[in-house]
User: What shape does this take?
Amino acid sequence: MNSTSDFEINNEKPSLLMPGKGHAKNVSNFQLLISFCHNLGAVYNPSNPRLKINQLELLYQSAFEKLNLLCVKREEFNKQTANRRKAFEDLKPLATKITNAFAASGVDKIALENAKAVNKMIQGVILKVVSSVDANGICTSQQSYDKKITHFEALIHILEENPMYCPNEEELKVISLKGKLDCLQRHNSILSESYKAYNDALHQRNHVLYNSETGLLQTVKEVKQYVKSVFGANSFQYHQVGGLQFKVRTGE
Assistant: This one.
């Protein structure tokens, strides 16, 4: 997600960014599980290599890193969402200024009507907004950011085709408007990449924690079964590990 955060994951195992909550609680309890198994000493000797202490520690480190990576990517995604919103916040009033300046420039009626029609699309008052959700879970409509960019580009094209439009105001000049268009496109693109990186980090975390064959929760289940087989269902050792709670939480 093109993260700008200076947070770095290392082997010092600092505190989780969201201790005691949801996914972080699962990882925190897994660290306790490893500690309990380690305290069993040589008696803890599973034949399954995935359940050996060194492999459990590697799984913990991977889960820990994926949790913190997701936090970084989420923070960056939220930052870029706010940046895009700010970049677009003056688009509607700007489009109205442009249309009024276009009308005052003396262009022909057809050109003016075309500009007004595009401005109405930017304002969202001419087309009924019908929202849907695309494959990435992003809401789409005539008032989506992609559509706003398309409409604004169309408005600039109308201005370029009418040389009578030659305002003295710097912000209304075509060259300035093209700069604004570039800015909007850039913010939209950055956010798109940021979302992809965030979504990828989400999938990575879910795979490490909740994969049905090798995930953290599946490993916990197998460790508990092994301890139960060695010490018995009523043993103190089994109650120690069996008392640790883990829940599947694939969402945020």
The helical segments are 22-39, 53-88, 91-104, 109-123, 145-160, 174-210, 216-231, 236-242. Strands lie at 132-133, 139-140. The radius of gyration is 28 Å.
